[in-house]
Every structure is written in structure tokens, then in C-alpha cells.
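Researcher: Final request for today, and then I'll write up notes for the group meeting. The sequence and the SMILES for flavin-adenine dinucleotide follow.
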Amino acid sequence: MQTAQGAWTHDAVLWDVVVVGAGPAGSSAARAAAAAGASVLLLDRTAFPRYKTCGGGLLGESLAEIPDSVRAVVETRVSEVVVTHEGRRSFTLRRSDPFLALVRRERFDLALVEAAQAAGARFEGGVAVRELSEAADGRMLVRTAEGTAAARTVIGADGSGGRVGRYVGVETGGVDLGLEDEVAMPAGRRRWGDTVLLDWGPEPGSYAWAFPKDEVLTVGVIARRGSPDATRAYLAAWKQHLGLAEADVVHSSGHLTQWRTAESPLRRGGVVVAGDAAGLLEPWTREGISFALRSGRWAGEAAAQAVAGGSRGPADGDAGGGLAEATGAGRADERALEAYAVRVREVLGAEQRTGAAILRAFEKRPGLVHTLLTRTRRGQDYFVRFCRGDTTLARFGGHRLAMGVVRLLGR
Ligand SMILES: Cc1cc2nc3c(=O)[nH]c(=O)nc-3n(C[C@H](O)[C@H](O)[C@H](O)COP(=O)(O)OP(=O)(O)OC[C@H]3O[C@@H](n4cnc5c(N)ncnc54)[C@H](O)[C@@H]3O)c2cc1C
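Model: Predicted protein-flavin-adenine dinucleotide complex:
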């Protein structure tokens, strides 16, 4: 992968779209915008491939968003999930067809960047964005350690707690701490096979997982931020429970992750945010890749539309090559960007609302949620259909009776 070290040539260019961050949200945004004909510069502070703390679990919703070249990096297709509550009450959910896929994020994210490049986006790794500002003519100025890029629109996909989120004013509804150890696949790979293990933990809202990949086993826990010692102790206990206390740790890391409030802004002028940068994450499972892929694509499509409908200047027509000189040359049509914000609130907001209600029930009565999910036919089927992408939490949220039960449990 190229980096921009010593090779920054973008100062004199007016890009249609600059995307900050090349995780699933940023690469999807870049791919969609470039495919729609926009000139796109995709920046990431890290040179790729790069490690990302994540289980790498892909729902059907995520698989539906990615091209074949990216689907090719899936390492495990899961057809069995073993669920426990604090290590007990084990239940095995098995289906003949796989219903979940697992990837290593360094490979997955690299394949997504390559797909964006294939669509025409320019990628620069190793370039940290330091500041955003708006010029008088509406151009956005993206200041990096290497130089400044000018853009008609900016998509912030720089992850949780990122700079663009701060620029837009993203408000956080909840913050979690995720801890993960990647351990070398223990001898006797058969034992792990294509089985995922999940455990509902002792801290309210916490859970743990073990996700087998080709060469590693990703073992992690997630819990509300605020009790790091308890979260660390949970990871240690989980590894002990799995017989992995002495396992060879290849990578050990932690990451804060956040979800937005319902009112949190998604746009400021010509800047929109997507994925974790916008706090788009399902609060109960903390699943975020499908949110990143979908919001990223929508943001990319909206940015391309905003540029096509925006004010015209001398830079138009020579994608990424012209000088931005005329007053108004940089201004995009903000209606398309606003439509993006509305779409996110309607579709992903509904999923987040339901997820938050389930999280409340799960925090209060984890044992009962475990029973409903694992001991009832409906719960099991729903779990599998949700993983496959055959249904969504938004649809679940539309069931008045089911949601009545969820709200009652959360009181
Ligand atoms: C422990 C843990 C386990 C998880 N497991 C799962 C799972 O199994 N399945 C799932 O769906 N979700 C999971 N998630 C959530 C998932 O990882 C995120 O939701 C997802 O990565 C969001 O993608 P993104 O593109 O928005 O952000 P990210 O993947 O975080 O990408 C942001 C990118 O922006 C770059 N960046 C940051 N700042 C700058 C800057 N100033 N300039 C330039 N670049 C910058 C970063 O280098 C990074 O590459 C997990 C999260 C945690 C913490």
C-alpha cells in the first residue's frame, strides 16, 4: 500500500470528496462516491494493512454490502454457537447452513480499501488528519501532517472519538470498553472448528466471545466503560474458563466504542459522519460493521449527489486535477447530505432504539434474556435469522407485544 510520506501532491487539487478514515465506513463511502463519478481522496492515519481491535463477526447484513473480492477474505463460516451465562447454562445452537461469518480485520479492511481503489478512489495511508475548516467559498480544508486537501464534501469515518465527529458535534449515548486477545490457534484446531462461543458476563450489559479464524482465536469481552479492572478480570476469567490462560497471545488490545444519542448531529455544512465516527453501533451486541458499511455507502452516494448538484467552478470536469479559484466553486448541494442524515436516523436509528431497549432488559435480567434466546424456539430462530440478515432489529421493534415484554424486562 502506498503512503503519502514525502509525496503529498494534493494541495492544488479540489476533490469532490475527501474521506477521513479507511475502516469499513470510509472505504464503503469512498467506493460508493467514486463509483458514482466523484473524485475521491481516502485518507487514513495508518499505513495498511493495519490491526483493528474487533471480533470480525459479519452478519448477513454486512455480507450483503461487500463485493466478492472482499467476501473472499472470510475465514470462518459459523454454523454453531454455544451460549452460556457466566460460564453456565450452556446451550448449543446449530444449523446445517452457516449463519455468521468471521474475518480478520486487517485483511477485511485492506480488501475494502482495494475495492474503493478499483472503483477509482485515491488512497493515502499514513496520513493523519489534524484539522477541518471551511473556507469562505464553501470548500472544506482538510489539514494533515503532509499538507492540506481541499474538498467540496468531507465524510468523517475516523472511528469512535475521532476528530471529524468532534467537528460535527456527535453526542454519545453510551461508551463501552472492549478488550481482546488474539491467541495463536491452540493445538487441535478441531476443537474450535467453526463454532463461536458467547457468554453473558457478570457486569451489567457485558458479554464475552471466542471467534475462531484460520490461524488465530479472537477472545474478547465488552462492558460499559468505567470499571476497567472488572472488565480485565472478566477477560482473564473467560480465558481461564476456555483453558486459554497460558495460550500464546499474538495481539492484546483494547478499544473504546460509543453509540450516539437519538438527536446527535450527522452533518455540519458539507461534512457528514458515518460508522463509529457517528456513533452508529448496535448498543446491545455492539455490532458495528454493518452500520459502518451501510452508513458509509449512503454517505458516499449522498456526497456524490451533493457534488453533482452543487455550484460549478473551474475545477469541475477534471476530477481531482483542477484548481479551486472561483468563489462558490466548492459548495456542494447540502440537500443530498441532509437526506443522508434523515436516512440514517430512520433506518439505523430504529435499529439502535430497539438495541438500546434490549440492552436495558439484558442489563437488568440477563438470565431471563438468556432463557428467552436459548430455551424458546422463537428466540433461537430469531437469533439465527437476525445473524443471517433475514430480519432486523428495526422489524423486531415493530412487534408491539415483543417490545412490550422487552420494555417490561428493562424496568
Ligand atoms: C472489542 C470490539 C469487538 C468488536 N467486534 C465486532 C464484531 O465482531 N462485529 C461487528 O460488526 N462489530 C464489532 N465491533 C465494532 C466494529 O469494530 C466497529 O463498529 C467498526 O470497526 C466501525 O468501522 P468504522 O469504519 O466506522 O471505524 P474504524 O474501523 O474504527 O476505522 C476508523 C479508521 O479511521 C482512522 N483514523 C482515525 N483517526 C484518523 C485521523 N485523524 N486521520 C486519518 N485517519 C484516522 C483509523 O486509523 C481507522 O483505520 C467491535 C468493536 C470492539 C471495540
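Model: The two ends are 51 Å apart (CA to CA). Residues 20-26, 43-46, 52-57, 128-129, 157-159, 162-163, 178, 180, 220, 222, 255, 257, 275-277, 281, 286-289, 292 surround flavin-adenine dinucleotide (CB under 6 Å).
Researcher: Thanks, that's everything.
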